[in-house]
């Protein structure tokens, strides 16, 4: 039996493996862990108790839930730029026109 977990980047996959290795380091029998690009494949899961498998899946859920979709990220960046532009154009000493000034 094997489990496959997919991540957004290779670095996320590495971070995930580091986290789960801290959980299973005290075991005498270890699962086979393979990193293939942005995927982590955990083989020989039968050597792990259900408790360890649940912990590994919960850590993955944390990584999965913390991702922001690319379109959401682009929208957040656009909103931030709009907010910056608004503050630049509406500063406290900014004049909207030169009418009435001599």
Which assembly state applies to the chains in this document? single chain
Q: What is the CATH domain class?
A: Alpha Beta
CATH architecture label name: 2-Layer Sandwich
Count of discrete structural domains: 1
Please provide a written account of the structure:
By secondary structure, this protein is of the alpha+beta class. The protein has one domain: Gyrase A, domain 2. The chain is built from 3 helices and 3 strands. The chain has a 3-stranded antiparallel β-sheet with strand order 1-3-2, with helices on one face. Strand 2 (32-36) and strand 3 (39-43) form a beta hairpin. Helix 1 (10-24) packs antiparallel against helix 2 (50-65). The chain is elongated, with a radius of gyration of 25 Å.
Give a quick set of tags describing it.
alpha+beta; Gyrase A, domain 2; single chain; 3 helices
The gist of it:
By secondary structure, the chain is α+β, with helices and mostly antiparallel strands. Helix content is 50%, strand content 14%. The chain has helices spanning 10-24, 50-65, 70-89; strands at 3-6, 32-36, 39-43.
Present the secondary structure layout.
Layout: E1 3-6, H1 10-24, E2 32-36, E3 39-43, H2 50-65, H3 70-89
Antiparallel strand pairs: 1-3, 2-3
């Amino acid at each position: 039996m094997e489990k496959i977990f997919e991540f957004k980047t290779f670095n996320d996959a590495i971070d995930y493996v580091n986290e789960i290795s801290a959980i299973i380091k005290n075991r005498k029998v270890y699962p086979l862990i393979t990193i293939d690009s942005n995927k982590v494949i955990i083989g020989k899961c039968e050597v792990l108790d259900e408790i360890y498998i649940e912990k590994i899946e919960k850590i993955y859920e944390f990584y999965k839930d913390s991702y922001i979709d690319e379109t959401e990220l682009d929208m957040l960046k656009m909103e931030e730029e709009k907010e910056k532009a608004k503050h630049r154009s509406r500063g406290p000493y900014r004049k909207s026109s030169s009418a009435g000034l001599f």
